[in-house]
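thought: fold this chain, then report.
action: predict
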Amino acid sequence: MTEIAIGIDIGGTNTAFGCIDSLGKILAEGSIPTQTRHSFGDYINDLVNEIKQSLNHTNKLIDIVGVGIGAPNGSYRTGTIENAANLRWRGTLPIAKLVNEKLAVPVKVTNDANAAALGERIFGGAQNMSDFMVITLGTGLGSGIVVNGDLLYGYEGFAGEVGHVIVRPGGRECACGRKGCLETYVSATGVKRTVYKLLAKHLGDSALRDIPFNDLNAKMVAEAAKQGDLVALETFKYTGKMLGEALANVASVTAPEAIFLFGGLAKAGNLLFDPVRKVMEDNLLFLYKDKIKLLPSQLGENAGILGAAALIWNDERIISKLKSA
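observation:
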């Protein structure tokens, strides 16, 4: 009998899942579109049916020990999704309850950045660390903070929203309804906004000047920067400055051993890492200087489902039960 945890990563476009053993090996995986079902109940039905079909194709005796779910606005405390802006279903969605009714196993829920942090701890570069942080750089900026070996959840399960620290009072409008949040400057969307601000400021040639806003992405900006495009280079310098300053402040509160950067924007490599590292070091409290490592995530392309499955494999009660069986 092979024990597996099911990791589910809910995105605005697609929902990916994987059937993952305690060593991080993926025995089966798949995905379904997230937004095409009219009701949330229909979406859950289709997702569970797809998972069951994938398990049938493994030709192994499978014991599901639990389901971990990474979701936008996912609450670890309540097992619900709370008013996620990028999902079509509004209100409080009792996802843990609905999946438990279908599979009759423990179900745990958290947001995608918290899941990435747990995945890093169980399967990635933080396996020997008890204090670290993961910053996810996608359409927005998410963060998962681990302190003394445990994820920081806070009273209602939503702690660690570094992306919504206000770094420029009265600054750029954020989807959360406030102005000046870090993610409006440091994210794939934030990079695009910076590019257009700089294009308006400078009259010089740039490969980015003729690209419509909705067609531009962070990868294009990175490629332009590698070719020496001055607007693209200045964009990464500014983005790194904003993130470096914010991380220096957050480090004063959490004192992490390392900070991992993950997501599409992090794939820019040293274009982003170099300015972030320099500015962070320049602004760190003297107690932390030259002590905090800035590292790329080691989870790879399957980070979402590995992180979600880590919610289960990190549960000491489940681990103890398996060991005593």
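thought: worth noting. The mean pLDDT is 91.
final: tokens above.
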